[in-house]
Amino acid sequence: MAQTVFAPWDNPDEKPLIQFKNVTKRFGDFTAIDNLTQDIYTREFFALLGPSGCGKTTMMRMLAGFENPSEGQILIAGQDMAGVPPNKRPVNMMFQSYALFPHLSVWDNIAFGLRREAMEKTQLAARVEQMLKLTRLERFARRKPHQISGGQRQRVALARSLAKAPKLLLLDEPLGALDKKLRQDTQFELMDIQEKTGTTFVIVTHDQEEAMTVASRVAVMDEGRIMQVATPAVIYEQPNSVYVADFIGDVNIIEGAATPHPAGDGYAIDWAEGQPQFHAKTNRAFAPGQKCFLALRPEKVAISAEPPDEAANRIQGKIIDIAYLGNISTYHVRLPNGTMMKAQTANTRRLSRRSLTWEDAVWLSWTDTAAAVLEG
Amino acid sequence: MRRFTWFNATSLTLGFAFLYLPMVILVIYSFNASKLVTVWAGFSTRWYGELLGNQAFLDAAWVTLKVAVASSSLATVLGTMAAYVLVRSGRFAGRTLFSGMIYAPLVMPEVITGLSLLLLFIGIGLDRGVLTIILAHTTFAMCYVSVVVSSRLVSFDRSLEEAALDLGCTPFTAFRLVTLPIIAPAVVSGWLLAFTLSLDDLVIASFTAGPSATTLPIKIFSAVRLGVSPEINALSTIMIAIVTVGVITASLISKRASLAQQRDAQAAARAQ
Fold it and tell me: In terms of CA atoms, which chain B residue is nearest residue A113?
């Protein structure tokens, strides 16, 4: 059955839920957010991804109302949020530390927000029970936060922030305190809950895997600016800058100069004296001799002992290091001019039958569409 | 390692003797049958009975209690407010000056605090009595409360308050429903500290007390100047007993709370 793809950002008629309009935020001399404009749509799972200090948390705190922009406007559902205090916004936040009230039981923590609006008693109880059920916490309703485990606390924090049915839920590094296995399970749980409730989620994270897993769109941030906003697949396969390519996943970056390829499609790239040119296709236009960067993912580089036939790019090198990760192995190969290049293969065979080892001379090869050609 | 050595035993004995010998002698002599303080004439509880019949002492005790309760409550409210503002408001011009000024009375000689308050009360024409002692005690106890409460607030997770705001609280309800219950132990110990400070203050009280109101320490001090009576010994023994019971109860309560917390945390870790 064909499903319509969820992509409200491609629909010009769609009204964004959140609009950042030329927002700048300064703390003293430090500019945390630099003239940022961005729309986020209803039902989106929007991830703000970046290293610490890139401004992602500041963006979130401005949405929650804990910080006010120095310049520019933030609109939620068309309404200007300037001067609206946190308790008057249709927004709830799940804190990195969870911020559960230690003196209240799980039940009372979840009911806390509902009690602030004059909600009828039976209705309130029903809502709390519903939230407990959604997060599978029924058994722990009477416990205090210090009497439950980290994963359960995380779910209490989620239930509490969802209880008021906010238009927008903000999640600040929600899974940072969980161990890896629990984190992966919880990511899928989060996506499931997001789908069930239809709430718009904005998540802040520095974990690129987490952002890629949960988000409908990822915004990669650096120094108060958004470098690229796109779906996880586009961010990974078609990064628009070396920064984004380098930040997401593992990548080989090769600097070179582009000249139109004699065959007429794509560019031939000079990357080192006396080495064969690389061939790469791209939509971007480069002037002859213009400086460019090839961003090549290690898993797109094939490694073989025999010279491959029919490869658009191939080059010989020597294996210096092998990182064995179980499911995959990463080979660090030194090219003739000393450049190191990473190639990755899936370990589909058992260890004993694989032939490549340290100091072996090998061939690396990739297609002319494997690498992204970037300006910088 | 041998725990018992002559050196250890000697230092322990000397240390505790210095601390408690005077009090032990006081307690023993409070049960002396003789009217002469320095001559032991057998065991008796007679002075405790006489103490209950001494109206002047009972009046002073009542005034002391009223002053202590009122001034420590007032000091707790003011001190908590001051601590909250100083810890929460972040950096502003003159913040260091403000916090320094809050703590300065801690090191100010009591005689000077007492004298300045006396001059103030005379200046504004306030008759000296219970009210002036309460005001004076509030003034100096408030600094202690503010020190105790702000040390708790510094380690208080700010995001708890933000979560309360986020869930629909006004800043005041967030303070009432979240901050205050969590820092309550610090506020209570601030109150207890203020209470005991007020209870045994002699210097500031003697500056600000008037003929209509005398506190117990003033009463004891002036009585002793006429000679130590066994009644005073009995009174002091009662005060020692009250303080001891209070301190032991407080430490037992906090110890049980922390044990329960530990147990719960372990249970949670196992359940994970």
Answer: B167
